[in-house]
From TrEMBL:
Residues 1-10 have a biased composition (Basic and acidic residues). Residues 267-436 form the Helicase C-terminal domain. It comes from Mucor velutinosus. SMART domains: DEXDc, DUF4217, HELICc. Keywords: ATP-binding, Helicase, Hydrolase, Nucleotide-binding, Nucleus, Ribosome biogenesis, RNA-binding, rRNA processing. A motif (Q motif) lies at residues 47-75. Its EC number is 3.6.4.13. This is ATP-dependent RNA helicase. The Q motif is unique to and characteristic of the DEAD box family of RNA helicases and controls ATP binding and hydrolysis.
Amino acid sequence: MGEPKKRQLASDRSVSAKKQKQEEASSASKEFEMSQQQQDASIPVNYDFSSLDCCERTKNAITELGFEKMTEVQARTIPPLMAGRDVLGAAKTGSGKTLAFLIPAVEMLYRLKFKPRNGTGAIIVSPTRELALQIFGVAKELLKYHQLTFGIVIGGANRKAEADKLIKGVNLIVATPGRLLDHLQNTRGFVYKNLKALIVDEADRILEIGFEDEMRQIVKILPDDRQTMLFSATQTTKVADLARISLKKGPLYINVHENRDTSTADGLEQGYVVCDSDRRFLLLFTFLRKNIKKKVIVFFSSCNSVKYHSELLNYIDVPVLALHGKQKQQKRTNTFFEYCNADKGILLCTDVAARGLDIPAVDWIVQFDPPDDPRDYIHRVGRTARAGGQGKSLLFLLPSELGFLRYLKHAKVPLNEYQFPSNKIANVQGQLEKLIDKNYYLNQSAKDGYRSYLQAYSSFSLKKIFDVNNLDLAKVAKAFGFASPPKVNLGTIKQTKKEENDAPKNSAEAQKKKKTKA
């Protein structure tokens, strides 16, 4: 009789902790907010890129990128940044903030006539390697007509090659936190004493995945006489703490999505489907076959689940790409760019791809495994309907998970229920179970995926909604192709919410993070 009460108490504590976290976040953002009148005074009414006080080299590059009009975050951020202000920006994913910080950084380096011998003048810190590569790609295009040097330093890449380039002089650097700190501490001849701008992108994500100590050390090592730009999708107490130690007194606080009716893009059509565990894969298989000529991203809760489903779908002639944290860096980079350049295709991934990445023309976002937090939902669906475009999203929910809709509604996420007639769903369960039973490699992969799915589920903080004890394991097993559940001992497996994509491969970062085994 006592056990349900214990679970209820744990759920209450979880909800209470979440409420406290939201209150802290609200308080943190208010510390940096200016009055609306002060903000409006510095906002230009002209949204044309041609109106910016940029050199012709930068303007020509912007034109070749195909941009004429600035987004709101660009129009409100670029002029004060070019005037030398420190900025704390709250901007929704897909809002155009990459150009918002790159244009001022490039212009600053150009006006100061930076040469390789001057070393590094601007550093952009990104939470993940994929996002760093993407920012680097945009920087490369923007610097097309400039003589400035630029480079990227990320975990998993060749450290010696990076160090050799830094010693020769790199004016603009894109970096992940651990590898940047490693070079700051250990690469002799890396000139950063002339640094003029530090840009921290996705600051909340950087801190969320455990790089708080690294960021504090980086800020401490770098020269104080610099401009700092801090961008964060959410304002938390940790972001506020980082802002306090990195920004000058009285920074400009810019929030481009306050007072909006929804937290997601206007061009995004969002829905959910309620489906029992044993029907989940059948519905996913039917959906993917129907949308085989579209560009679709499917999110899973674990690396092993991505690995299994990609192996299975490719085996049964539904071609897919996979992106997850257990892959080597080169494989991940190649997969990411292959999908970016494709007109159609299906990408299976973990949250490694959920933050900040700009993948062109995505038609559908499918959240096969729901996220633990509405903020993660918002970041996932932010991969489509970007920069004023159109897109659709589909969230899979078990009947026991419908309570998650209340949290989404509170977070201003509008969803409609989608209906999929049962007679339209391909019933391939028998063939699936035969395949998993006979194919040894798929069988092992399915076991790993099943175990990791339960592991991830048991780690969710919203226990009232995502309670692993409420799952029908026989039905869950069927979704992974098993006629009966494989034996899994959840109690012996340590669970971490941090993904391997953020578990760095270099020495400075490796001391901080251990890879998850699931």
